[in-house]
Structure formats: C-alpha cells, structure tokens
Amino acid sequence: MDWSLRELRFFVTAAEAGSFTDAAAQLYVSQAAVSRTIAGLEKTVGDRLLRRVPRGCELTITGQQVLPHARRVLSEAERFTEFLTSRHGVLRLGYAWAALGRHTARLQRDWAQRHDAIGLELVRHNSPTAGLAEGLCDVAIVRRPVDEKRFDSLVVGLERRLVAFASDDPQWSRRRRLSMAEIADRTVIIDPRVGTTSSRLWNGADHSPQFIESTDVDSWLDAIAAGRGVGTTAEATAHHHLRPGVTYRPIKDGPRIPVRLAWWHDHHPNGLGDLVDAITQLYAMA
C-alpha cells in the first residue's frame, strides 16, 4: 500500500478545516491540488474519506476511522523532522558509572555559557562503551580501553583510585588511607563489564582478593553497604554516588585511573574538539 505524508497532511487539513477551499489556503496550494491529492489517498484506502456538502466537506465513516491514525503518523513525522533538525545542535556525552566527578557541573555550566549553537546532554548507560556502541551518545566517558578497530579515544585526565567499604567496618572505619595489600585480604565486588577493578591490579603481589560480581553501580553499593565485600573505583564515583552506609577512602598505592573520551572512527561530532579541550583543562587544573 503506497501512501505519502503529503496525502495525509492534505486529508487532515481538509477534515479539520471542513472545506477544500480553506485547506488549500492553509496549505498554500490550489483547491484542485487538494482535491487531486486526497483522491489519490482515497484510491489507496479503497474508499471515500470526505464527502462534499453545501458548506464544504465532511468525514465519511471511513474518514472518521482513518483521521486519528493519520494524525498520529503526522505527529511522529514531525518529531522525526525535529530530531533531524536538532541532531547537530546537541552533543550527547555518555557515561556508565560516573561522568566526570566534581568536574561534571563545572563542565556543564561552562559549556552552556560558551556554546550557544551546541547543547551538551549527559546520557547514563551501563555498557562497556557507555552507550556509544548502542548509538545512545556521540562521545563517551570511559575508564578502560575501547576497541581500537571501531573507536578513537583520547586520555583527558587521571583520577585517584578509592576503596569503598561499609561505614561500620570495625577495622577500617577510622582509617584515612588504605593499601592494595589490605584490600587483597578482603572480598572485592566488581562490575566486569564496565568497572576498572580486576585481578590484574594485584599482579606480582603475594596474593589477590576473592571477587564477586555486581551488575551496576547500585547493586555494587548495596552489596558494600551490606558488608558483603569492598570495592575499588575511580574518584568520580564518590562524587556521583554518595550512599549512606558506604565510606570512600584513597588507596595510597593504588594506580591512577585514566579517563578517556571515545567516539566512532567515522563520526566526529560537532563540538568534539572543544569538549576534549574543556575536559582536559578541568583535569589539569585539579
């Protein structure tokens, strides 16, 4: 069945105006064009949609059935047009667990002041590429390497590694700093899909911790608050996810975590260069 948005628009306009003449005036076409276009739609439908009356036109029974569907299609088409129009005016920045920690609000405020034509929208998605592979964002904040065959990436900053543990932990509750060796004596909760913690952190050590897996940052925090284990994470997590019952402390010998921006090889979105510069400067000033 072959119909067009033009036909639907002419039909809906005539139905709402109650007149082919008034519809033609609203559409800036001739009355003959309105009649001809609606006749084409009626041929596709296989029935009359509008009947002429002395005062103009009115819906037939079939027309009454078709009209709400035609309105919905036109509404969706309008939203699609708006998306296509605004697509280059928004830079979507994805992240999984945490965006940029204490730099996040500053980035958003500075960006809004300096960029009138490109908005910055943060998108949270718990996947290894923070929504980039899924098409949910244009650029992603990641803290582990990405597939170099598909994506370009650039390190824009480094963050301290923290340990998270239950606030009522009898051994650690009053500690200001901890070590990787002390963490190795505990059960460590990890998110193997997007997290930055794995057994590789203890390569060359006397021993490594036992691991249990979580599915996202909320289940990770819940397990830690319940005392099921501890976790190591980037400093940004502590800023984004303060949780009653969970305490964060620096790891004195914990390796720094690179913060990367990643994007598709074949897609350099508008504003990418400015975004790289802005985030790099924020981390450099820290």
Note the overall shape: elongated
Order of helix and strand elements from N to C terminus: HHHEEHEHEEEEHEEHEHEEH
Taking all residues together, what is the mean pLDDT?
94
Low-confidence stretches: none
Kindly report how far apart the N and C termini lie: 62 Å
- The total beta strand count reads 12
Summarize the main sheet: 5 strands, mixed
The structural class is alpha/beta
Q: How much strand content do the residues show?
A: 15-25%
Instruction: Tally the helices.
Output: 9
Strand order of the largest sheet: 4-3-5-12-6
Helix content: 25-40%
Task: Supply Rg.
Answer: 29 Å
Family: Belongs to the LysR transcriptional regulatory family.
Organism: Streptomyces yanii
Domain HTH lysR-type: 1-60
Protein name: LysR family transcriptional regulator
Considering the chains and any ligands shown, give keywords for the structure.
9 helices; 37% helix; five-stranded mixed sheet; three-stranded antiparallel sheet
Topology summary:
Blueprint: H1 5-17, H2 20-27, H3 31-45, E1 50-53, E2 56-59, H4 61-86, E3 90-95, H5 104-114, E4 119-124, E5 139-142, E6 151-159, E7 161-166, H6 180-184, E8 187-190, E9 210-213, H7 217-225, E10 231-234, H8 235-240, E11 246-250, E12 257-264, H9 272-285
Parallel strand pairs: 3-4, 3-5, 8-9
Antiparallel strand pairs: 1-2, 5-12, 6-12, 7-10, 7-11
Helix pairs in contact: 1-2, 1-3, 1-4, 2-3
